[in-house]
Amino acid sequence: MTAEAMVTSPFAGPATHSDRPLRIALLTYKGNPFCGGQGVYVRHLSRELVRLGHSVEVIGAQPYPVLDTGASLTELPSLDLYRQPDPFRTPGRDEYRDWIDALEVATMWTGGFPEPLTFSLRARRHLAARAGEFDVIHDNQTLGYGLLGDLGAPLVTTIHHPITVDRQLDLAAAQDRKKRLSVRRWYAFTRMQGRVARRLPSVLTVSGSSKQEIAEHLGVRDERIHVVHIGADTDLWSPDPSVAEVPGRIVTTSSADVPLKGLVHLVEALAKLRTEQPDAHLVVVGKRAERGPVARAIEKYGLQDAVRFVKGITDAELVDLVRSAQISCVPSLYEGFSLPAAEAMATGTALVATTGGAIPEVSGPDGQTCLAVPPGDAGALAAALGRLLDDPELRARLGAAGRERVLARFTWAKAAEGTAAHYRAAIEQAARTRRAR
C-alpha cells in the first residue's frame, strides 16, 4: 500500500453545524514560528480552529509562539537555557523557582535535552489547577511523562515525526566516538517519548510516511495513529507576477548544521551546476553555520559569493524571496511532511525535491508537479536543477501544477477540520470509557 493511500482517516472531514464549539488547550514546549515546523503548526492550526468557532488557548514555553488574532497565549516559562546569545547558560540562583527548574539545569549540565520532560511537568501542574476548563487537550509533540494519566480532559497528541529519525541521522554524521556519545546523551529524551507514545489513546500525524515511522520507531499501534495533513497558508503563499524572477536563483529553507536537511548535498550540487550555469546561485533561509560540513563545502568549492543566508525576515519578504526564485529546492534526507515544499508550490515556483520520508506525499509525482531525486545524491540534484534552469516552459508547467496540488490537498483550513473531528472522537471515546467504568 502506498503512503498516499494510507492517509484516509475515519474521522476526516468538517464538524457538523450542530456540534458545539470546543474549548481547546494547545500545548507546545517550543513555539518559534520562524524556525522549525512546530511553531508554524501551532500558529496556523490555532487560527483555523478559531475560524471554525472553537476557543483555543495555546500554552507554551520559550521561544513563545506568535499567534494570529483569535487564539490566546498563556506563557508557561522554562529557564530558557538555549536562548541566544547565551545558549547553554547557567542561570543565577534567583532564577530557580522549584525542583523542576533544578531538574532542567541538571539535565543540561549532563549533556541532555530537558525541555520535553520539564515542560510536561509544568503543564500537568498548570492543567490540574484548571480542571474542567477545557474539553480537550492537544499536545504538540512534547511526549513527556507529565502528560500521562488524568489531565482533566481527553488528550490528543500530534507527532510530526519520531525524533529517533533525527537521532539516527546525527549518529551517522558523527565523526568520532566522543561526538557519538554526545549525540546519544542529547537524544536521551527520545526513550521517554517512546514510552509515553505507546500509552497514548490518540495520535495524530501529518503524513503516511510519518505514520509508518511512528509505528516502527515508537511502537505505537497502527489503529491509534491517524493522518491529518497540514498545509500552506495559500492566501499568503500565492503567485504574484509583479515579482521579477532572478535568473539562476535557487532558494531553500534549511538549518545548515542539521544533517537531516541535506544542505551540504545541495551546496555540492551547486558547485557542479555552476560549471555549466555560472549564474546559478543559492539563497538559504536559515542561519549560516560558521563551522561544519556546509561551511567547509562552501569554502572548498569557492562558493562564498554564490551562497547567501538570510534570516529574521518577515513573512511577506520570505514569500517574495521564494517568488523571485526560478527554483525552490528541498534537499532533505528525511522530512515528516515538508512545509517548505508545500509553501513553495503554493507560490507557483517550480520545485526540485528529494524522495526522503514524506516529501513525495507533498511534492507529488516526478515530472508532473516537481522533479524528484534520491536523497543525498548531489549529482542528481545538479542534473534536475540544470534541467529546470534551461527550460522555462517546464518551470511554468510544474509551478502551476504544484499550486493546484496544494490547493486541493494541503491547506490549514482542511487541517483544522480534520483535527477538530479527531478532538470530538477523543471526547466521545473518553465518555464511553467513563460509562463503562
Describe the structure.
The structure is a single chain. The chain is α/β, with parallel strands linked by helices. The strands form two sheets. The chain has a seven-stranded parallel sheet, sandwiched between helices. Strands 10-9-8-11-12-13 form a six-stranded parallel sheet, with helices on both faces. It has helices at 37-51, 99-109, 115-128, 163-173, 177-186, 189-197, 208-218, 263-273, 293-300, 315-324, 339-346, 359-363, 378-389, 392-409, 412-436; strands at 23-28, 55-60, 72-75, 136-140, 155-158, 203-205, 225-227, 249-253, 281-285, 307-310, 327-330, 351-354, 371-373. Residues 1-18 have low confidence and may be disordered. Helix 8 (263-273) runs parallel beside helix 9. The two termini are 38 Å apart.
Radius of gyration from the CA trace? 22 Å
| General shape | globular
What is the chains' assembly state?
single chain
Mean pLDDT across the residues is 92
Instruction: Give the DSSP E fraction (strand runs of 2 or more residues).
Output: 5-15%
Assign a percent range to the helix content: 40-55%
Main beta-sheet strand count, sense and barrel state: 7 strands, parallel
Total number of β-strand segments?
A: 13
Terminus-to-terminus distance: 38 Å
Uncertain segments are: 1-18
Number of helices: 15
* H/E topology pattern: EHEEHHEEHHHEHEEHEHEHEHEHEHHH
